Amino acid sequence: MLLLRMIETPLKHSTVAVSTAIRKASNQNISTKKVDTKSFGQFCQHLSRVRVRCEEQNEIYQWPKFLLHELGGDRNAALLKLSTITPRCDEYTNSLIELEQLEEIKSEDPELLQMIDEERSEMQQRMEEEREEIVDHLIQDVDLEDCEAILLEIIPGVGGLEASLFAMELFNTYNNYLFNHGYTFDPVTFVTNEAGGLQTASVMCTPGDAFRLLRHESGTHRVQRVPQTEARGRIHTSTASVAVIPKYAAKFDELKTRDIKKHFSRPSGPGGQKVNTTNSQVQLIHTPTGISVRCSETRVLGDNLQLALRELTCKVHQLQSSAIASQINSARYQHLTLRSRSDKIRTYNYPQDRITDHRFHISTRGVTSHLSGSTAFHEYMSRIDAEWNESEKREILQQLMQED
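Request: output the structure for the sequence above.
Response:
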């Protein structure tokens, strides 16, 4: 640092100096909104100590549980990843020492004080960039890794006929959005009522990168409007539930044939073209979990069987993933359950022409445009995705920094 080279100071870049610079933060509470520079410096030292201990005795060293989980769970792979992060941690702690040295300078010279202020601002900016780089390498969006497809389910909730009509609107929203962005959209189950409302729908979507934005659609959606059948003009509230389940390429083993019971039957509903004269409807039951799926979307038994198997695989893997995550109870899992499993995630208010996401209190105008799956829908989901990632990183970082 130029200014420090111009001014003699007894401080040196040593381990003692680093410890002195960050020890003051040892008893401070870590804010989830803004990480204190000295607290983060202490965390950087912690990561470096973990790396050194692992290099000496990785097979017997008791890794910090949440840190190991965040680095992938495998000791050797975690050590390799940590080894690429700790050099950046050393840069941060060195920058912290330089900042401490800068603050030790006492002077009444206005010109020197101005130089100190300018250099302090530059150093704080650099440390912020270093911190973001460390966090980005340490905390990554693992949900998107190896995701090859997603299962999208929509079911009407409270509200009777109006709820089924709203569920159909949501289905068309996702259908239009995915089609316009080049994704495949293969129905597994699609059942409607006589009024054109949706009773239930499940579709497979590929490729899996659609999960990045659509994962934030999971939860209960609420609509407030005057139904077409309402003679008195009263506003009704109806709901629909959306589930977005990823299908991973390598995280879990394929389902065992002996664990799946198959039932074949004739589809119910309108006939014609020999639809109801063959046993083309498939029901699969995963006996270890009790999960059951049904498919009769095509007239070909083999096609229905493959679609049902893909849906069953997604649901079983999702159950296994949730079980593992709940056992570890990491900040990532806590963030997911808090944000996604509330009473409602979003409200579509037609009288006020406003959409509100209740997880992050993000509102926008243009309900009709949004539900058409237009650019407005994409931009709104992108805003939610940015807020989701930022809040998730804050909570994971807080947990890691509080871990011994």
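The chain has twelve helices and eleven strands.
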